[in-house]
Amino acid sequence: MDTDAALYGPASPFIELPTLSPVGALARQLISYAVLGAAVAALAYAVRGSLPPIGFELSLADLGLGFAGVVAYAAYNAAISLLLRRTSIIGWLGRRNQTIFGNLPLWTMFLMAAIAGVGEEIIFRGWLQPIAGLFVTSALFAVLHFLPNRFKWSHPATWGMIAVYFPVGLAVGWLYLWRGNLLGPIVLHALGDSLGLLFLARSVR
After folding, report:
1. Which of 3, 86, 164, 181 is buried most, with the most CB atoms less than 10 Å from its CB?
2. Percent of the chain residues topping a pLDDT of 70
């Protein structure tokens, strides 16, 4: 069976995307954050007249909580992988990520993870969560990782992946609510993404 046909065929939840170059991957990421950030900033000014102040402080306690969150995130991913091991979703995700990101150098992957950790946490937890609340923000955080230009919303697996992602947003959002410091969520997010990309890189090299 042709790999692309299996990966992007009628049974798959994915929409075909091009293999990304380092410049293309970073440009795509930065443009998406600029658009999303502008939309959330416009909402903030419409609702409250200004952007919410972002809590950030260099704190060993919050740094430690960020590292602990990475361990919890890895355990959650391992548990989900075990639960879904008899389905085709894990295999699809692995092949698709290899197709899109597999040729990127490690420095690009780690830079993308760092940008995601800072950019997404500022936009979602720092700006949107004080306006929309924890649950709405977490739901949007999950849905926007599975946009209809990349995933088929008519496919039940897409909504299954959104459901799996939703508790991650809840946990990171709760950490910011509890501590009032974006350091922990940034560390958790950036390192969690870095680990995922590192495992991806090891699987294709």
Report:
1. 181
2. 86
Whole-angstrom Cα distance, residue 40 to residue 123?
Answer: 7
What is the C-alpha end-to-end distance of the chain, expressed in Å? 23
Other CB atoms within 10 Å distance of the CB of residue 110: 16
Average pLDDT of the residues of the chain: 86
Whether the predicted pLDDT of 199 surpasses 80: no
| Identity of residue 156 | P
Phi then psi for residue 102, to 5 deg, are -60, -25
Q: How many CA atoms lie within 13 A of 92 on its CB side?
A: 21
pLDDT of residue 204: 45
Q: How far apart are CA 90 and CA 92, in angstroms?
A: 5
Question: 16-20, 53-57, 145-149: which has the highest mean pLDDT?
Answer: 53-57
**How is the chain split among helix, strand and coil, in percent rounded to 5?**
75, 0, 25
What span, in angstroms and rounded, lies between the C-alpha atoms of 173 and 153? 25
- Extract the tokens encoding 87: 């389905």
> Which sequence spans correspond to the domains of the chain?
21-204
Strand, coil or helix: what is 146? coil
Instruction: Tell me which amino acid residue 165 is.
Output: Y
Place of tokens 């991957």: 25
Q: How far apart are CA 188 and CA 185, in angstroms?
A: 5
DSSP 122: I
φ, ψ at 51 (rounded to 5°): -75, 140
